[in-house]
Amino acid sequence: MISPELIQALPLKLQHILQGYQSILPELVVAIWVLVSMFGDLFLVGKNDSASRSWRYLIAQIGLIFALLLAYQRMRHGTEGFVAFRMLWVNPGSNVINCLILAIGLCIIFINQYQKKSFSFEEKIGFFSVLLGSLLTSLSIHFVSIFLSIELMSLGTYLLVGLRKDREGIRAALPYVLFGMGTSAMLLYGLSLIYGMTGTMLVVDPAFGRGLATADIYLAGAALALVGSGILFKMSWVPFHPWSPDVLESLPAGWMSWISTAPKIAVAWLGIRLVHFIPVSMDAIIAILAILTLLVGNLGALNQSNAKRLVSYSSIAHGGFLAMAWLMPAEQGVDNLLFYSLVYSASTLLVFYILDEVQNETYSSNDMDNWAGFGQAYPLRGLLLLIGFIALIGLPPAGTFLAKVNYFSQLWEKYQMTQANPILILLLVAILMTAVSIYYYLRIPFQMYFKKGTTIHPADSLKNNWIYLVLSGLIIACMLSPTLIYSIWKA
Q1: pLDDT-based confidence at 236, cuts 50/70/90?
Q2: Does residue 438 lie within any of the structural domains?
Q3: Is 439 inside any structural domain?
Q4: Residue 37: alpha-carbon gap to chain centroid
Q5: Could you tell me if 34 and 125 are in contact, meaning their C-beta atoms sit under 8 angstroms apart?
Q6: Of 19, 27, 267, 362, whose Cβ has the fewest other Cβ atoms within 10 Å?
Q7: Which helix (H) or strand (E) holds 82?
Q8: Cis? peptide before 397, omega within 30° of 0
């Protein structure tokens, strides 16, 4: 029988639960909006493709704008606390990360609609799955929530990658799905081992650190390696990178940008949290893997003759830069990750979309030679593309220059404190690979401006490029006024 005391305490408990869930209203809105979108599609059956696409975009935009406004309000108030039976941890860093992820998603939806890209039911569900999974990943602090959020994110990427039914699409999707399923199993097994050693699934529980510190070193190392496999797969770090170039090359610009940004940023943030609660130093291992990732990404890009594939390889290297924040003290690592993520996202969207947008047959293949004369045919887009490449390199006046300088200075300070050779080698390799990236990134601008094309097309105007102009302005603003950018999430 239910006791009277329990009945009397029930309203208070429900009120406490509801107050807690107010902290994750943006994520709840996105979760609810997935159901709303699925229900809305029932009324789109029988409509022509154009009308159906417009309604799908409108429904997605309404949900994203509402969620972004709630996330921004939460960020401005500095909301912090545990939610959902201590499975999620809302804090200032995750608030900023989720605002950024929502903004990226909204930007992709707007650009896709402007370009009249297809937006099928499957694409919409895949997009929302990646979005919700990324948002929850940045909040996760419990083994169950970590695994489920990463898997939700993975299911969305599987769906988007698998939409292309031709031979190239299948060739890219099949290894990615199989690789992803394998690393998911490794992640689950690793989390199970850690639970067996620590007796807790909560990362912030003191028992988590004590259990790992007192466990058998080989068993603990194996468990952490298994967990790391599931995380590094999403970051496309070596040796879990082979899927990245083929998958990204096979996707349209919207989903290519989406998969290259949101999951990586969310997992990089999760990695900061996990690394700083592990009782043993992971610096040497992280540094070595980062070195290999930078080498593979940048040297792989050198040999590419296709522009999209070149940028796909370079995204591997940028994943290495994102996760370098794991080597830094908590506050500096968070700030550097947030700033780098902002500029990287804007530059990735700018470059990927412009590479994919040109509709004429001359440039549709994205082969390097086909970009000859592009700067003359499309002077505005050529200039914006040049700004995007400069941002990806990390040169002034792009904000990535300051982001990389922050990374380099923090790594140098880390080396001075620890005298760890892997940190010094990582710093030198990062600087060297930045120099290498100048060569392969500027190959396309060289073709655009110094090679004469066979066909001259009418120059484009400012009319339909406002989103690209906004992205370029943001990239430059991060360089010219970084204190303003920092103040947005530091206020």
Answers
A1: confident
A2: yes
A3: yes
A4: 23
A5: yes
A6: 19
A7: strand 81-83
A8: yes
Spatial distance between the Cα atoms of 17 and 223, rounded to a whole number of angstroms: 34
Distance of CA 97 to the CA centre of its chain: 10
- Residue 356: CA atoms inside 13 Å, Cβ hemisphere, count? 24
- In this structure, which amino acid lies at residue 420? A
What's the domain range around 353? 281-491
Tokens of 244: 């990245």
- Greatest extent of the chain over all pairs of C-alpha atoms, in Å: 86
pLDDT at 423 over 90: yes
For 323-336, what is each residue's pLDDT tens digit? 889 998 878 888 88
Lowest-confidence range among 76-90, 446-460, 471-485?
446-460
Residue 130 inside a domain? The answer is no
Count of structural domains within the chain: 1
Structure tokens at 280: 């043993």
DSSP 229-256: HHHHHHHT-TTS-THHHHHHHHS-HHHH
CA atoms within 13 A on the CB side of 91: 14
Q: Length of the chain in residues, anyone?
A: 491
The Cα–Cα gap between 301 and 436 comes to 10
Whether 143 contacts 201, CB under 8 Å:
yes
Judged against a pLDDT cut of 50, whether residue 360 lies above it is answered with no
Residue 200 backbone class (left: φ over 0; alpha: ψ -120 to 50; beta: rest) = beta
User: Does 59 have pLDDT greater than 90?
Assistant: no
